[in-house]
Fold this protein.
Amino acid sequence: MAKKVFPFFAFLIVLALVITACGGAQTPTASGETSTEGQPVQQTVEVIKTVEVVKTVVVTVESQAAAPALPAPPAGYGATLKTVQERGQLICGVNSQVPGFGYVDSAGAFSGFDVDYCRALAAAIFGDPAKIEFRPVTGSERFTALQSGEIDILSRNTTWTLVRDTELGGNFVHTTFYDGQGMMVPADSGLTTLEDLNGGTICVQTGTTTELNLADQMAARGLEYTPAVYQDADGTFAAYAEGRCDAVTTDKSGLVARRAVLPDPENHVIMDVTMSKEPLGPMVRHGDDQWFDIAQWTVFALFTAEEYGITSSNVDQVRAETTNPEVRRLLGLEGDLGLKLGLSNDWAYNIIKLVGNYAEVYDRNLGPNTPTYIPRGLNSLYTDGGILYAPPFR
């Protein structure tokens, strides 16, 4: 059967006719003129060049590895150190009536564990522990003296509590002496427990945690008592010595210290009871973190020097020979730890050389060869079964 080719040939004929009709069509030139087939003309070619412009945009992206910018110091930062340095001496609020901690003798000389802390701080700042004024303050006036700027630091057997830390405008630095409240009675009284004091009279100093702890302990036991309240330690223990109360209470360290200066110390005993926790240490005003850091790390320098066996008598030899990196940083041989505190890099060396390490301060005031001997107990280094522990010097 023959294929039908007619439609295809018809399509070709139509296409040929269209091409013929368009044979004289105008061809556009580059110049916009036209030409007719077979009639050449001169053509002008306009070339349009597209130039690709590449613009480099630098985008600064904060690297996660880059150190963040340090914030500006808060208002008040550095003010205390500047004031102390311009004055030329440290003013330290201390006790003057507790042998072993803060005491002034008949010649006006101050001594004691808390007093020596003040000397260590002066040594750190000035390289001279004598550039200091000791300002005796009572239990009731000590916080006002600190708040008002009358003293630069309080170092007066003061217990760290939440209320004192939040409401009195101050910060406690690290505890220097861990203590607990006790009770002292005449040896011939027959009194051995708190229950034996039911209905009795107890001498206590006002404005202290001692007064509050006594009330708590007696109330918890359902015991009645009459508080005989006095303004200072001298008045409190004078009343007790005169027999105006059946017992006297304060921190155990204070009982040991005051018993040593009673007319007949052997006729008084401290009960085997601990009525509270009493973490004692220095206190500074709120608002100057640099001063807080200096006070804090002065405590840690005393701890660390004892830990490494560095004393006032061997510190120069250790400084000349040591290869221990932490000891070298402590003594200012490497790094700039002192500068970070606003002090010279030999600040800790000056503390150790001029005042001693923690053990030297303790033994000088509370050691076995003193009238106010108190076994170290909790106040031993962590390496010796105590709880004294300094962060790393790095």
Observations:
- The longest strand covers residues 181-186.
- The chain has 14 helices and 17 strands.
